[in-house]
Design a protein that fits this description.
- A hairpin with a 5-residue loop joins strand 5 and strand 6.
- By secondary structure, the chain is an alpha+beta fold.
- Helix content is 54%, strand content 9%.
- Helix 5 packs parallel to helix 11, helix 6 crosses helix 7 and helix 11 packs antiparallel against helix 12.
Amino acid sequence: MIGSSELHAIIKLLDDTDPEVLVIVEQKLLSEADSIVDELEKIWLENTYSDLNPRIEEILKLIQKRKLHQDIKNWLKGDIQTALSAWVLCSRIQYPGLTLGMVRTHLNQLKIDAWIKLSGVRNPLDQINVLNHVIFEAYGFKGNNDNYHDPDNSIITRVLETKTGNPISLAILYMSLANDLGIPLFGINLPQHFILGYCRLHSLPDDNGYYAVTDISNDNVSSVLFYLNPFSKGQIFSQESIDAFLKVINVDEQPAFYQACEVLDIFKRILRNMYFSFGEEKNFVKQEEVAEIMEIVGISKPNSSFD
């Protein structure tokens, strides 16, 4: 671990005209990434070395990218994987310093308001009606129909700020809030539109009537009671509506279109949407960053349209 004075001395060497010295300096900074990133970011923000700031920025971006890639690899190997944590990882493409804790702090008031209004409510349809009121009426979240392909629709910080999102981002927000409150909602990976299912579980609730939903795997799901569409303000519908939708888009029925999907499937779908969104915006640098993460997660660059 290098100290502040040593870091400053190393940074000054970025001005050296010898290419070999520059390679050594950059390798040294990258090797000390975990211990210097905060100080290096402070130096960059304060423009301490104005002539060197572009080089410092490049090194910072590389450090942040490596850290994100490693965190994603750790997530893939982890025992507890949530859609919210996956979304935070994806959002770090735009906001490298974002953490799950920051997001949860932002969502705390929404969670508290929903918890108060859900007190004593046990009927599944009534629970959804309460959540719909809190999320879409009290807090004003809605689907971004005006700019559907905007990359901001896939970035959690922007969704929380603008109160608008795409089908999967609003579904993750809705599902995460519901799961924290013990309501068994799971993602349904429908083609061209991501929705949620209110599921019946094999496990029974504890004495307080709540499920530890975030710890429940799809193996605990016995059936789907009904479906809902967060992009349409939590509209509730049945399996027959999915049948009709599949006929409209000319896609054959598959069991996976009616069942709870894995969290990894949600992660992959966020990435595919981000890849297309950045492409639509012609931000090919960010699109390539998404493609690198897609490779880590195990999917190739898609060749179909945004879903």
